[in-house]
Write a structure and sequence with these properties.
The protein has 404 residues and is α+β, with helices and mostly antiparallel strands. Among the domains are: 131 residues, no CATH class; 126 residues, Sandwich (Immunoglobulin-like), CATH 2.60.40.1120. It has 13 helices and 8 strands. Strands 1, 2, 3, 4, 5, 6, 7 and 8 form an 8-stranded mixed sheet that branches. Strand 2 and strand 3 form a beta hairpin. The longest helix has 29 residues. It is elongated and about 75 Å long. The two termini are 44 Å apart.
Length: 404
């Protein structure tokens, strides 16, 4: 019940904001009519969703997702109209304080009155869990398609329909929909990124030349578009271009601070798919001391029974005072031990963070029982050894501890 009250209050506030906003400023007549049309469409769609929720056609989760989608696309469309309005010029208008006061009183009271007459709190309780069947989903899409047939220039409708097609796996139709969104709404990094996604999925998950073209266009408009960075890196990997993949994904890692699970997953993908093969001692001796740290890794015999020859061993160099992600990483197997290898800028996970950029580093090694570079209970590890990044001496790492 508390959730319902919060949702109802939010809808009321949003409705008031959308109604009052044009009354508190000057306006262009064409822009205002477009605003009114968009708000009317959004309110109609919200009413339909509420009816579907009450009749158990959709779940509460689907209701919230679709409502948020409608609100975000409406806000986006209004923003576009505002930009157009600035170029067209505004016409002065008189104060609307009386109208605003009526709205502030009428909208909340109307909402309460309608709910008291027709509402039912039970309609949003967890028992409404049935998912729409295929026919119901088809009917919903058909309704949107019918609206677009009547109003083919409805940008908001095309955005919703394209997102729906993509979510349902109808990638060819999603691709056509996003092309229509570009035609109506102009160039947008988000639209190009979604178009690249739909194009790649249509090709069976391959980032084709056309999909990559769309992703790169998105990055021209917004170099920090996360979806486009991921697709560009994936496209580079599929072509065997590890340097390019490292560049795109390296730029993406710091943008995922708000989603640490995804950030860590990407770091692991970089570590496992882009790592250079381990260098043997003979190769290390041919490298310049200034270019690399020489590291000797061995497993304490007391822990030999706890490790399998095929277990991965990760050797890391991290900044003592810097980013948590490794500056350099190598992956070998227990069967390779003991081994002397090198860590250098060529082993960087992220293009912007290299071993040569941080003077004081910590070097360590870990046997991963899960195959993942992140430490988990049961893994075996060495102590962390402090060193300068220009240390000419061999750093000895003995794996002798069990991760608790």
């Amino acid at each position: 019940m508390t959730a319902f009250i919060l949702i109802a209050a939010l809808i009321t506030v949003i409705t008031l904001a959308l109604l009052i906003w044009p009354l508190k400023r000057t306006r262009n007549t064409i822009s205002y009519e477009r605003h009114a049309q968009n708000i009317h469409f959004a309110k109609e769609r919200l009413q339909e969703l509420e009816a579907q929720l009450k009749n158990a056609v959709i779940s509460a989760t689907d209701y919230e997702a679709l409502k948020l989608e409608i609100e975000s696309t409406l806000a986006h469309d209004i923003d576009i109209a505002n930009q157009a309005q600035k170029t067209q010029g505004d016409q002065p208008r008189r104060s609307n304080k009386f109208s605003i006061s009526l709205l502030c009183l009428f909208v909340p009271l109307s909402a309460i009155g309608v709910y008291m007459i027709t509402g039912s709190p039970e309609s949003i309780t967890p028992k409404v869990s049935s998912q729409p069947n295929a026919q119901q989903i088809t009917d919903l899409i058909t309704n949107v398609e019918r609206r677009l047939a009547e109003n083919p220039d409805d940008l908001q409708g095309w955005q919703i329909l394209s997102q729906t097609y993509l979510a349902l796996g109808r990638y060819g139709e999603a691709q056509k929909g996003y092309l229509r969104v570009l035609e109506l709404g102009g160039e947008s990094a988000d639209t190009y990124a979604s178009l690249a996604d739909a194009t790649g999925l249509k090709a069976g998950g391959q980032v084709t030349a056309q999909a990559l073209k769309y992703a790169l266009k998105a990055l021209e408009l917004n170099p920090n578009n996360r979806q486009a960075l991921w697709l560009a890196g994936l496209g580079a990997m599929q072509k065997g271009e590890k340097v390019g993949a490292r560049n795109y994904w390296g730029r993406l890692v710091p943008l995922l601070d708000s989603v640490p699970d995804q950030q860590q997953e990407l770091r692991e993908i970089i570590a496992q798919s882009i790592d250079e093969p381990p260098m043997l001692a003979k190769e290390n001796s041919e490298r310049s001391i200034a270019d690399a740290l020489t590291v000797s890794v061995s497993l304490d015999q007391s822990l030999a029974s706890k490790a399998s020859p095929n277990d991965f061993v990760f050797v890391f160099a991290r900044a003592q005072n810097g980013p948590p992600a490794p500056l350099a990483v190598k992956r070998i197997r227990v069967s390779d031990l003991p081994l002397t290898l090198s860590l250098s800028d060529a082993d960087s996970m992220i293009e912007q963070f290299k071993l040569s950029a941080f003077e004081d580093v910590l070097v360590s090694a870990r046997v991963s029982k899960s195959g993942q570079p992140t430490a988990q209970a049961g893994d075996l590890q060495s102590a962390k050894v402090s060193s300068k990044n220009s240390n000419p001496e061999t750093i000895e790492l003995i794996i002798s501890e069990v991760v608790e």
